[in-house]
Amino acid sequence: MVHSSYSCATFFTLFTLTFSSFTSAFTSQHYSDALSKSILFFEGQRSGKLPANQRLTWRADSALNDGSSVNVDLVGGYYDAGDNVKFGLPMAFTTTMLAWSIIEFGENMKSELGNAKDALRWSSDYLMKAATATPGTLYVQVGEPYSDHQCWERPEDMDTPRNVYKVSAQNPGSDVAAETAAALAAASIVFQDSDSSYSHKLLQTAKSVFDLADKYRGSYSDSLGSVVCPFYCSYSGYNDELLWGAAWIHKASQDASYLSYIQSNGHVMGSDDDDFSFSWDDKRAATKVLLAKGFIENNIGELQAYKQHSDNYICSLIPGSPNSQARYTPGGLFYKQGQSNLQYVTTSSFVLLTYAKYLDSNGGHASCGSSMVTSETLITQAKKQIDYILGDNPMKMSYMVGFGDKYPMRIHHRGSSVPSVHDHPDGISCDAGHQYFNSQSPNPNVLVGAIVGGPDSNDNYGDDRGNYSESEPATYINAPFVGAAAFFSGH
Q1: Does the active-site annotation cover 83?
Q2: Which residue, of 18, 100, 258, 300, has the greatest Cβ tally within 10 A?
Q3: Looking at 83, 104, 148, 470, which residue is catalytic?
Q4: Alpha-carbon span 451 to 449, nearest angstrom
Q5: Burial of 195 (0-12, 13-18, 19+ CB in 10 A)
């Protein structure tokens, strides 16, 4: 008897271990570590005067005269990726997603909540300056992308032109302005309790920037042309941002006029379309999820259609569902397109988790044709994607720098790949930097927490600095990941 019960217990323990290791490659501690690092990454992207508590100490002050050519202060904000330009559209989207991550999953961030709010404030402060420096104007870019991209310079040495670009009534940019309004409104929710006067300023500025976007309609791609295209062209147009901006201002203010705006304009702004992408360019799917919350939790009848469209988007991501449209690699990674694919993985994973939370609040489910999909299914699908990024993949490597034992060493990032000013105080010129770009050595400065563009459609990753589609990190890849990592660190 003793022997058989021992065997049975052993079998059960082995089965449990095998089952748990199969169902999860990572523990909540792993996700907490990933959360910390995903937030720390933003300190490596900082532009401007760095604070005394800067933790990535290989960085130093940079671009301290931004805006001076037009007599405004545009110091601060984030470099979007591996270069030294401050692009307004992806920076605003990054800000919105950092804020949304904190709004939905901040309670799971524990000791990292302060760092997450610092990361958010670094960009919301900048966007406030960009939106209020000159009445009727939104400054949307600092830096001349062509000359910047020809150089391989760390930001501290940058000597390429810091041209300033703006949108206004004469040069409309409804897309970038409405995304900036969304970012400021979302940030105002985050700071409501901890800094009410700042929160109020953010919301008032969001409303005035939204008015600029709505009254003077046009795409910033048309107004600014080759300065923003092909880098961050607004391919989806500006209607998606107008609806997204209105949704965020309504959420932040509960001002009924924005709900009326959504009801009156939704049909022409894409609310009737099913869209299967969510990125810095295209907000349609996420806007529907944000608005569906009002129907799911508060039964606002006018928003019922958004629930069905949200279901359609969510169902498109679930393999085997009748509406499934998503393409996956052999190793199980959601694969949208070759350039910086992980941005679509982090945004869709975030939306899966957020929608699961909304459904849970009311015991609901998503309808995929004749099938019902539960919140658990959405969470499982998101978890597969997040775990893949963290190392549960055919390459057995993490796509987050500094996480796990094996991760990208040669990322496409100027500041990370050129020796730091602390190790090499003399300037390194535009052309002299190319020796570091072409080097086969690992980057000398570890950009902890950076999530790169990711592997190809067959799960292969070459760790090649020259292949920017795969090896370049970006703020808008990390921002939604912050929310997803927070969710799993608490579950």
Answers
A1: yes
A2: 100
A3: 83
A4: 6
A5: middle
